[in-house]
Specification:
This protein is of the alpha/beta class and 156 residues long. It has 4 helices and 9 strands; from the N terminus they run βββαβαβαββββα.
């Protein structure tokens, strides 16, 4: 299956309500307008995820300038995400899909039931609708250029 041809593309954003690393609630209703990347990743503190989120942090000023917000989602607890964000210097929301375990990843069709983790999957949400999707294997970081291409920004 073509990774861009995810069943949610063209559908309304599935409802969710998660806490970020500061304990603030972020919900699908909060993301109702504007452009947002919802970036699912397996676990904080893992090698590939750490490199991938560092790359997103480097892209963040470009995305911010284009009006695109980044929200990264894992099954880690908000307290672990706070320590991770502080250690890594991440300035975007890290959302805890901790309990019910992986419920938001399941709603987006990117939960690995056997391993109890989110898969490496990204959704571009625009005005409450899923408009684009890309992913990579769990052990492989997503390509930074895919983020820029999804929102029609020039290459780095």
């Amino acid at each position: 299956m073509d990774p861009a041809a995810h069943p949610l593309v063209g559908a309304p954003v599935p409802g969710f309500s998660l806490q970020n690393q500061f304990g603030e609630t972020v919900s699908s209703a909060d993301l109702g307008s504007g452009r947002h990347f919802l970036v699912f990743y397996p676990f904080a503190f893992s090698r590939v995820c750490t490199a991938e989120l560092a790359a997103l942090e480097r892209l963040r000023p470009t995305l911010d300038q284009a009006g695109v917000h980044v929200h990264a989602v894992s099954v880690d607890h908000k307290y672990a995400l706070r320590a991770y964000a502080d250690e890594q210097g991440l300035g975007f929301d890290l959302l805890a899909d901790f309990w019910p375990h992986g419920a938001t990843a399941r709603a987006f069709g990117c939960f690995d039931q056997e391993q109890g983790r989110a898969l490496r999957s990204t959704f571009l949400l625009v005005d409450g609708q899923v408009v684009h999707h890309f992913s990579s294997d769990v052990g492989q970081a997503r390509n930074e250029q895919d983020y820029l291409d999804a929102v029609n920004l020039p290459r780095n």
